[in-house]
Structures are given as C-alpha cells and as structure tokens.
Amino acid sequence: MNTIQDTEDLTTGGAAIEQMLTEVNVDQQLKSLKKDAVSTKSPSKRDAIVKKIKYLSGLKKMDLIPQEAYILHNIPVVPPIVRPPIQTGSNRIEYADVNQLYKDHMTVNTALKGVKDIAGHGDLVGGRRDLYNGAKAVFGVGEAITGTSRGNTLKGFVRAISGETGPKGGYFHSKLLSKKEDFSARGTIFAHGNLGFNEAAIPVDMIWVLYEFHIIRDLVKNGYSYVDAKKAVTDRNMAATAVFNKVIKECPIILNRAPSLLLSNLTAHYPVPVEGKTIGINPLHLPFYAGDFDGDALSVQTPITPEAIAEAKKKLLPVSHVYDYRRGLGMSMVMPGHEAIIGSMHLTEPDLAQKPVTFKTEKDALAALKSGTILESTPLLITDDLRPN
Fold first, then answer.
1. In this structure, is residue 16 part of a structural domain?
2. In the beta sheet, which residues pair with residue 297?
3. Is residue 80 part of a domain?
4. Would you say residue 4 has pLDDT above 50?
5. Helix, strand, coil proportions of the chain in percent (round to 5)?
6. CATH of the domain at 213
7. What range defines the domain where residue 375 resides?
8. Inter-axis angle of helices 43-61 and 26-39, nearest 10
9. Are 149 and 30 in the same domain?
10. What is the three-class DSSP state of 250?
11. Are 251 and 309 in contact (CB under 8 A)?
12. Same structural domain for residues 370 and 307?
C-alpha cells in the first residue's frame, strides 16, 4: 500500500519543476528515444518521439542542461534606450508598453516576497500564477495581468516585434520598413520635350521627400545638428535649398515600370524639378519602359548608400540602355518617333524669308534663341572661329 509523504517534505511550484528537470539525463534519453523511433509503428507516437529528440539534441548541441535552459530565475530588463519615453503634444509623455508591463510584474513580485515566508502554499497559488503571467506579458507571449494594461492593449516584446494581427502590425514593418516609403514614390508620366538624355522631370515636392535623407546627411556633415538639419529641410531655407540643388545633380533617382521584365525597366535619371504631381519623360525613353502616355505610371526610388549611387550612375543611366542586344549587337533601342523627326526637320530647315543673323559663338546664338531675338527657323551665319580647323 502506497503511503502519502508528509506535505512539509513536498516541493511545489517552480522548485518542483526545476527538481524534475535535474533528473533528466539527456544522453540516456536520446539513446532510448532513437531506439523507440525506429521500433514504433504508430505515426503519431513517432512524431512525438521525434519532437523530443529535437529538443534534447538542441540542448546537447548548445551544451546546456535542462534546468538551466528552461528555468528562469531573473527577468532581464532591457536598457532604457530600447524603451524610451516619447514626448507628444500638450506636454504629454508616452512610455513604451513594456515599461508598464515591467511595473505590473514587479508589483506582483514585491507582494509575493512580503508574504511567501508566512503564507501557506495554497495561499501563494494565485500570486505565483500572476507572477508567471506577468513574465509572459513582458515577453509578449501572454496577456497583461492588470485591467488597465489590458484596456490599453499593451504589448510585450514578441507581440511588438511580430505583430498581433500579422507582420504589418509588427515593429519591423511599422517602425523600420515603413520608413522606406520616404525613399519611394509613384506618378503618372507625361511627355516632356525639354529634358536632357539622362534627365527626368520629377515634381519638386516629391524630390524634397525623396532626397530628405541626403540633404540632412549633407547638412550634418557641414556642422548642423540633426534637429536643425531636419528643421532646415522642413522650412526649405537657403542652406537646405543649396544642398538640394547640389544633390539632385550628384544622385540620380531610379524609375521602374512594373512588372520589371527587362533590364531597362529599371533606369536611373537625374531629376529636374517641376511643379505638379506627374513625372515628365523624354519621349525617346519610352522603349525603356514599354510605355506610352495613356496613363502609364512609374515608381520612383532613391538610392541611399554611396555604393548604390555609384552603381546607378554606372549601370542604370539611359546611356547604359541605348543598345538592345536582343535585336543584335549595335541595334539601338532609342530612336526618334514621328513627332521628333518632324521637330528635327523644323529646327534644322531655315526659313529663307528671314534675314540671316550672324553670331560669333554658339552660346550667343542659343542665348538669342532663348530671349526670343531669333526663331528656331532663323538662318544663321557661322563665323570662321566656330568652324573646325
């Protein structure tokens, strides 16, 4: 007949679990389980045995003993920089969720310390359960233990990182990946007839957002604090504008027409600021994107690192996509359309009814054209110093 041991000699709670884990012989159980896995014919039993083997093999590989791997004697507290207070409007300060969850757990722990030596085992069950659930809440694998914390839907580490309803609600999507949106944009294209071969017309407000990181970085290098540089960009003051005008000539943007089936679907251009919300494209570049001007849209990305910028300049500018090697070596993908041919004829065919005008340099002729002194069709006389020797 079995006898019941005196209750004073019984071990309960976490101490009992720790004692049971100390009796686990990893090597012996692995040897036994591997034999059972071979001999058993039940798929469900074999599945359970394989899971045990995985756990025990993991402990052996990491050189851990069960009571050290599965018993936590102290709750780690992350540094304050990981859970900083955030000042919001109206002089309010918001704290990270885990701060309150730590507080809830510490409150229960302090209460238990005060009564554990005088209360019986039965009286400590509820407090120990709250202590366990409080640790789960901090780690993010359980609900908060106080009504206020549950009402505020506070989340522990795992829930904050992974998201409760999916990855998009987690830390990486909402706090890290979301910032990538500041480096990308999208717009419908229109025909812009006054662009260089490596240029694209981009809305000026879009460029300020896309290049904010580059402008702030340049200002900080020149002695600005981050806060002052951020304010300069927000205000678009003279210093920020000077950097803006510099970086758009040094760092190209990348246009993409999805689905990106061809190399030329990703092409870099130096942005030319324009008003509005649409993206201006040189008509010669339409074959790059297999596009036209019937509502097609392009995505815009900004290279961030110096290596990405250098690669965009070297490999993605339109000059790198001129030749279509699918059609044969030396076959150009870029060629003028009907409008460009007619325009070229108009610009190069002189109107003999007009009186010829003589200019000393090409620069003088272009300046006269820009000012309206001459027309595109005005006959020009070139002086000898412009002709090749």
1. yes
2. 188
3. no
4. no
5. 55, 10, 35
6. 2.40.40.20
7. 350-386
8. 150
9. no
10. helix
11. yes
12. no
Q: How confident is the model at residue 14 (pLDDT cuts 50, 70, 90)?
A: confident
Q: Cα separation of 320 and 160, whole Å?
A: 45
Q: Please state the domain count of the chain.
A: 4
Residues 212/233, Cβ–Cβ less than 8 Å:
yes
Any domain includes 325: no
Query: For residue 93, which of 101, 82, 81, 85 has the smallest C-alpha distance?
Result: 85
Give the DSSP H or E segment for 357: strand 357-359
Amino acid at 253: I
Tell me the C-alpha distance between 341 and 349, whole Å. 12
| E strand or H helix at 189 | strand 184-191
Answer yes or no: is pLDDT of 55 > 70: yes
Query: Distance between alpha carbon 73 and the CA centroid of its chain, in Å?
Result: 37
Question: pTM for this structure?
Answer: 0.50
- Is 354:375 a contact under the CB 8 Å cutoff? yes
Residue 182 Cα to chain centre, angstroms: 9
Residues 17 and 112 in one domain: no
Same domain (yes/no): 272, 191 = yes
For the chain, the distance separating the N- and C-terminal CA atoms, rounded to the nearest angstrom, is: 122
